[in-house]
Amino acid sequence: MSLFDKNKLPLSKEQQERVVAAIQQAEKRTTGEIRVFVEKHCAYVDAMDRAREVFEELGMTQTERRNAVLIYMAYGDHQFAILGDSEIYEKAGGPEFWKHAAQVFREYLRKGEMAQGFVECVNELGNALAAHFPHDPAVHRNELPDEIIFGK
After folding, report:
1. Is the Cβ–Cβ distance between 30 and 141 less than 8 Å?
2. CATH assignment of 13-150, among 3.10.310.50, 3.40.50.10260, 3.20.20.210, 3.20.20.70
């Protein structure tokens, strides 16, 4: 399947299920939240600007512990961004951690393995969230849906 077919999603149903399962597994170990947003084109020159907009639109700034993370992708423009809310951004190690997470994702994308890239990136983010925001039975609730959001 070509990533550029107008009416086809860039991930098959089975691939989507693998990514969602990775999100659910990661979130079992943390109070953090991970979301994936995929669209064909980025409305801005910088994918991080669009990621900030999507982050806000999805209510990700409203998590109780400010520990939500968004993986944003504009597959038609070959752009992506990983955005963490204020608390997780600093606690995970600042810019160096986020560069590493992006590099993990980028390596799979270069090999044409988008779904596995999402899974591995979610695993990296989940490890950081679990280390700094471990599962707390008193707070365990899924604040945000786990499914992949497909934009225009």
Report:
1. no
2. 3.10.310.50
